Amino acid sequence: MKIKDLAEKLDYWIIPKKHQESYDNCGLIVGSGEKTITGILTTLDVTEEVVLEAEKLGCNLIISHHPIIFFAIKSMVDNNSNQKTIMLAISKGISIYAAHTSLDNRFTGGINETLAQKIGLQNITPFKKLKTELPGWSDDIIMGSGAIGYLSEPKPVIDFLYDLRKTIDISCPIKYSFIKKNIQISKLLCVQALDYLWQKKLRSWVPNCLLLLTLRIMVSLMKKI
């Protein structure tokens, strides 16, 4: 399969670019789409070390979560790490595809639903359901940002966080803030980042709800793997 063929499948059938946030830059953003795929390396961010690892493993396609290019580039010189990485990838014949908010906004089988299921939440629904309206798409696949779910019974927030580390089997600390230890929680909202929190004005959304930033946990799981 050619790189461009996989990119087209991802862009339409798996994580539609139609649903990326307006500020984002998802899709195939570095390299040639005409080459046949020899291997794929997945990563959270693309760095020079990641490019060299891809070369060592025989991978000519890197699929990252974060785009290595967010804004317009007016020059391409080796005076910052991003541009060095882009130039290195091109010199090695390695293409880069970014998933980011196209993936964040996929509910069915996406990051938030998967985590919500993993920690045993019930009645899981997207915080904001998005209209797909793509010809050929199954009605069983839901696009939406965030995931809301309920615990089987209320639990002190600190107890929940201790249990969370065991449930998802990670060794690094889970950071928390603005939490009173005696608060009982019954509902969780899983989202990727704090800017999402501010955009949706969630600070006064609902009592007894814990906001779970899944990006931190996703990084931890990737490190463990």
Q: What characteristics describe this protein?
A:
225 residues; alpha/beta; Udp-n-acetylmuramoylalanyl-d-glutamate--2,6- Diaminopimelate Ligase, Chain: A, domain 1; 2 domains; 4-stranded mixed β-sheet; 8 strands; disordered C terminus
What would your notes on this structure say?
This protein folds into two domains: 3-100, NIF3 (NGG1p interacting factor 3)-like (Udp-n-acetylmuramoylalanyl-d-glutamate--2,6- Diaminopimelate Ligase, Chain: A, domain 1); 105-224, Udp-n-acetylmuramoylalanyl-d-glutamate--2,6- Diaminopimelate Ligase, Chain: A, domain 1. The chain is built from eight helices and eight strands, in the order αββαβαβααββαβαβα. It has helices at 3-14, 48-57, 81-91, 100-104, 111-118, 157-167, 194-199, 214-224; strands at 27-30, 40-43, 61-64, 95-98, 122-130, 143-156, 184-191, 209-213. A four-stranded mixed β-sheet has the order 1-4-3-2, with helices on both faces. It is globular and about 55 Å long. Residues 203-207 and 215-225 have low confidence and may be disordered.
Question: What are the SSEs and their pairings?
Answer:
Elements: H1 3-14, E1 27-30, E2 40-43, H2 48-57, E3 61-64, H3 81-91, E4 95-98, H4 100-104, H5 111-118, E5 122-130, E6 143-156, H6 157-167, E7 184-191, H7 194-199, E8 209-213, H8 214-224
Parallel strand pairs: 2-3, 3-4, 7-8
Antiparallel strand pairs: 1-4, 5-6, 6-7
Q: List the helices and strands in order.
A: HEEHEHEHHEEHEHEH
Please indicate the count of domains.
2
Sum up the overall morphology in one term: globular
Task: Return the average pLDDT rounded to an integer.
Answer: 83
Going by helix content, strand content and strand pairing, the class is alpha/beta
pLDDT under 50 segments (min length 5)?
203-207, 215-225
Q: What kind of sheet is the major sheet?
A: 4 strands, mixed
- Looking across the biggest beta sheet, what order are the strands in? 1-4-3-2
Per DSSP, the total helix count is 8
The CATH class designation of the largest domain is Alpha Beta
Report the strand count.
Answer: 8
Q: What's the end-to-end separation, in Å?
A: 26 Å
